[in-house]
């Protein structure tokens, strides 16, 4: 091979990936940044440059602040809960008893359902009066609740749905990791007289850290990305109590057609997600023990 | 091949092309796409497909591709997305109130540019005036009424009989609604409500129901010019306060935001004895209520009032002129007296033309089911629906205020003051 071939070949090999990444990630990001600095073109009126005005009005936009707060609560709630639940489910099904196959299947079932279908089913669950939850609670004498029509309970209701949907998916990863742990560790611990909880806390969980990091990144991304249930169940209401950031971006861009403000909002979401990613990879990665 | 063979081949190919060419361009029908939403119960897709099949039989040169495009806001999103990418649908059914936003986007064409013959002009002037208010801007008609409706009041006659009320007469004014609802609200031994007296849905376009109360209170929610709203005027605040008090003070209505989609079902299951809902649900309630029900125009306060609602047919700019013609043909057919009456009977929407009410089919239907004529009774009292520039955004602002008031997080006065401020900020640029 000639020297030129040596230096050109790697670039040629990378070219498809670079083209796709540039076209669908980097170029749109730059274009969005530029769009956010102009006004929205409407019919006969062309866009004009307004600089950082969109970002300024964002600070005083009550709906944006509500969306930010809601998304923070939503992420802080769903991420630890879904990780804990999926870990628990993985530990439960990580045995070769009879019936674990059926249990694994039923834990995984929420994952194969599309989010829109799940949202519609849970819309029925939450219906006041004859929805599933109110019927069950009614047996114990509780009154009907307007789960989705009440500002105090709506975000929690959506979080419950999200945890239910995601836990099965994360369980698979934990199950795979658990099955790779060497049984000699357990035997050694038994010889030393270590309790089950102590073993889990000091041996199993640290060894599962790579999976936990992966699952945590996925869970955080999902908490910003999945808004299908907001669209189907609450449309952001009541009075923006369940508006999440991406839903607000979608509404602004495609319902109100205020594309320049939506571009500004998108940049903010991008910066938030990028910082969280840096944090996770930077700080947590150092704590993870890789084999 | 030999030269002679080549010449024969060439000649025959040319002849074939000459014969097939013009014949093919004559036979190809013009294809148009028709985006339509579904906002009511019932087999609407089947009704639309039947109508299209009949239209295509009579008009062999036009093919209509009907595309169900979700709810009204979704239809607007899809149509505008298609328009912005350069391939708009030829026609679509969208909210009459979107007219200002659509003009601003330069997406639709006025019907005056398409009407040429006297018959066309007669057709255009045959629509009822009240429905044309939301369809005309600056003297031009930008959409023609297709599926229009209003709010109606329904009550459960059996429930009335149970508590000793006359089942044939519904409450006639705001005070009577409260009195009647108090008698109808049933509670069980532990104090939980098993049947509410009144239910007004508020989860979607709640501003529409507020407009009814505002009109009955002698107020106005916005100007028809599309650039000014009156959200914080005393009449509007009082109207919203009355609505909120139904749940908060009189305790005859479920607290919180109430879902539209399940309100008819709540009515059928006896969870509420009286409801307000769109006239578009009339056929649904007629077919599915397991008890005799009453239907009437909305109760009055200072006067009678109710909003109009529903969709118009819009024809998009930027499509082939032949396709625009085809779309215009289909629009005329779909909104002519016979089809208008048929659509109204099958769905429960109000026929927006007087000649539709005069057809034999409609007269027979009204005789068999007098409830169908109730919506027409309300026409003299109807007010146009809230319609402004950036309509989706402004209506979202007032919806938020109504939701905040119903859930109790703000008082109606506070919520509406905030809404008016926000609406002013949005509409300022359009004056």
Report on this structure.
The complex is a heterodimer of chains A (291) and B (431). In chain A, 75% of the residues lie in helices and 0% in strands. Chain A has 291 residues and is mostly helical. Chain A has one domain (63-287): Orthogonal Bundle (MetI-like fold). In chain A, helix 1 (3-35) packs across helix 13 (259-287), helix 3 (62-93) runs parallel beside helix 7 and helix 4 crosses helix 7 (154-180). Chain A is flat and about 75 Å long. By secondary structure, chain B is α/β, with parallel strands linked by helices. Chain B folds into two domains: 29-142 and 309-335, Periplasmic binding protein-like II (D-Maltodextrin-Binding Protein, domain 2, 3-Layer(aba) Sandwich), CATH 3.40.190; 150-305 and 384-430, D-Maltodextrin-Binding Protein, domain 2 (3-Layer(aba) Sandwich). Helix content of chain B is 47%, strand content 16%. Chain B contains 19 helices and twelve strands. In chain B, strands 1, 2, 3, 6, 7, 8, 9, 10, 11 and 12 form a ten-stranded mixed β-sheet that branches. A two-stranded antiparallel sheet of chain B has the order 4-5. In chain B, strand 7 (186-187) and strand 8 (193-199) form a beta hairpin. In chain B, helix 9 (206-216) packs across helix 10 (234-248) and helix 18 (391-407) runs antiparallel to helix 19 (412-427). The longest helix of chain B is centred in the N-terminal third of the chain and has 25 residues, at 3-27. The A-B interface holds A 42-44, 63, 127-130, 141, 143-144, 146, 148-151, 235, 237-240, 251, 254-258 and B 73, 76-77, 80-81, 101, 103-107, 190, 192, 203-204, 254-259, 262, 266, 269, 271, 390, 392-393, 396, 399-401, 403-404, 406-407, 409-410.
